[in-house]
Amino acid sequence: MARIAGVDLPRNKRIEIALTYIYGIGLSRSKEILKKTNIDADIRCQNLNDQQIVSIREILESSYQIEGDLKRFESMSIKRLMEISTYRGRRHRLGLPLRGQRTRTNARTRRGGKKTVAGKKKAPRK
What we know:
- The chain is mainly alpha-helical.
- It has helices at residues 15-18, 27-37, 50-63, 67-83, 87-94, 108-111, and strands at residues 3-4, 7-8.
- Strands 1-2 form a two-stranded antiparallel sheet.
């Protein structure tokens, strides 16, 4: 089993797809990496030799931010937005949608489950 960037790649999948298991690598970036290393995209992960694995690893380390580095960069960006109190930072802090979506309805993913508020009660008759 090939282990690249701390991720065990699935043995029986094509290398083009297996690379997408690494955080920060999608299908287009996977194809780009394979083109740089001159590895056929149809090779199964279990059929890679050590030299091919090393070449993929070298390109990933030199050219791309992946896994922990990328996650750290994203969290630092969000913290920076919150510290300088931008609109997006305040929305992150409140746990609300950031990009202009409506919140009166349909914001359940960011806001969590429904919290029922009691309705207005009628005054008792005399």
